[in-house]
Automatic annotation (TrEMBL):
The gene is top6A. One of its GO terms (cellular component) is chromosome. The keyword DNA-binding applies. Its cofactor is Mg(2+). Residues 141-190 form the Type II DNA topoisomerase VI subunit A all-beta domain. Residues 193-359 form the Topoisomerase 6 subunit A/Spo11 TOPRIM domain. Relaxes both positive and negative superturns and exhibits a strong decatenase activity. Belongs to the TOP6A family. Keywords: ATP-binding, DNA-binding, Isomerase, Magnesium, Metal-binding, Nucleotide-binding, Topoisomerase. NCBIfam families: PRK04342.1-1. This is Type 2 DNA topoisomerase 6 subunit A. Pfam families: TOP6A-Spo11_Toprim, Topo_VI_alpha, TP6A_N. The active site is at Y100. It comes from Halococcoides cellulosivorans. The keyword Magnesium applies.
Length: 365
């Protein structure tokens, strides 16, 4: 009886199956091709049922009929060969290393001219194989995102499994999210909800004030636009542990898009929305309404801010009475504000007053 393939075996088999397709095309006398969704903003659609961004029906074809097309497919073959060997040896590498490693490849046309090119090729392989890059054992540079809160887990590492409590077994910095959160097994938790926080300063304030302990919150540092690993872990905490997810950001249009990427996915990673997006995630603030109610310190909106807000009024992710009211209010007051502006009422205001009141009004605590 054959055993169930591991994720790594499956990833390797799918990659080699792609290479086999090219060989079969050659063998039958056809020009090798590879079909991909057109990766442009005009081919991104909002799936109303799933509430996430996905690719549309438009596709483009990479063909060896042209010199440039043949070079792209050559790079695909070399990359598949490298990834298959990497998986066979149970090794891993970074996206940056792949770019430099290509310089040692035998044929000059197979080498990458930039890291953007190698990054995009890895994304292409994710799409056509339906395998995430983490299963290729490819990782970005460290994102540094961390978790603090009442959660005990088991993490698989190349030095063996280890059990960690994300409060008792870590320092003030918290537990660092691994590149592939699917290597984590949740053992037990006393968490009431997940609080995703945009800035490191606010994350540190919440931890220093003991917010995670007092409210049984899992505080996840987003670190600005959140990395894939951060969004994947957040989705797993929601889906597998049944925890509500709330997102706490600055009060500006770019921060609202950070919330949007957690909740609905991003255009860049539309092919991974089913793995990364948490559509039930809620926005806790800073709201334009808060800027007015608390008379927070502010900066005027730049032209780029105004354009972004107006764009969000037409963005399917923000098509609700709540967001329409908040965005129109922000355009009216012509102001934006940061999370740290809440400190104008004292260092304890955010944990003693602002978040408890907002989360209570939302039914989270």
């Amino acid at each position: 009886m054959s055993s169930t393939p591991t994720p790594e075996t499956s990833a390797r088999e799918r990659l080699l199956a792609l290479a086999d397709e090219f060989y079969d095309q050659f063998d039958s006398g056809d020009v090798p091709t590879m079909e991909l969704p057109t990766r442009t903003k005009t081919n991104i659609e909002y799936d109303e049922d799933e509430r996430v961004w996905v690719y549309g029906d438009r596709t483009s074809t990479r063909s060896a009929k042209t010199v440039s097309g043949a070079q792209k497919l050559l790079k695909v073959i070399y990359t598949i060969d490298f990834l298959a060997d990497q998986l066979d040896q149970d090794r891993s590498s970074t996206l940056r290393e792949l770019y430099y490693l290509s310089e040692s490849w035998e044929l000059d046309p197979a080498q990458f001219t930039s890291q953007d090119e190698s990054n995009q090729l890895i994304e292409d392989l994710e799409i056509v194989s339906d395998v995430r890059r983490e299963e290729f054992h490819m990782r970005p540079e460290e994102s540094g995102a961390k978790v603090m809160g009442p959660l005990r887990l088991r993490e698989q590492t190349n030095r063996g499994d280890r059990e960690i409590h994300c409060q008792h077994d870590v320092g003030q910095g918290g537990y660092q999210i691994p590149n592939d959160p699917d290597t984590i097994e949740f053992l037990d938790n006393d968490a009431a909800f997940v609080l995703c926080v945009e800035t490191g300063g606010m994350r540190d304030r919440l931890v220093e004030n003991g917010f995670d302990d007092e409210y049984d919150a899992l505080v996840v540092h987003l670190g600005g636009q959140p990395a894939r690993a951060t969004r994947r872990l957040t989705k797993r905490l929601h889906d597998e542990l049944g925890l509500e997810v709330v997102v706490f950001t600055d009060g500006d249009p770019w921060s609202y898009r950070i919330y949007g990427s957690v909740a609905y996915g991003s255009i860049k990673s539309a092919h991974l929305s089913k793995h990364l997006a948490t559509p039930d995630a809620q926005f806790v603030g800073v709201q334009p309404e808060d800027i007015v109610e608390y008379d927070l310190p502010t900066d005027p909106l730049a032209d780029s801010d105004i354009n972004a807000l107006q764009s969000e009024l037409d963005d399917p992710r923000f098509q609700s009475d709540y967001w329409e009211e908040q965005i129109e209010l922000q355009l009216e007051i012509d102001k934006k504000s940061e999370q740290q502006a809440l400190a104008s009422y004292g260092l304890d205001f955010v944990t003693d007053t602002y978040l408890p009141e907002r989360l209570s009004a939302m039914g989270v605590v």
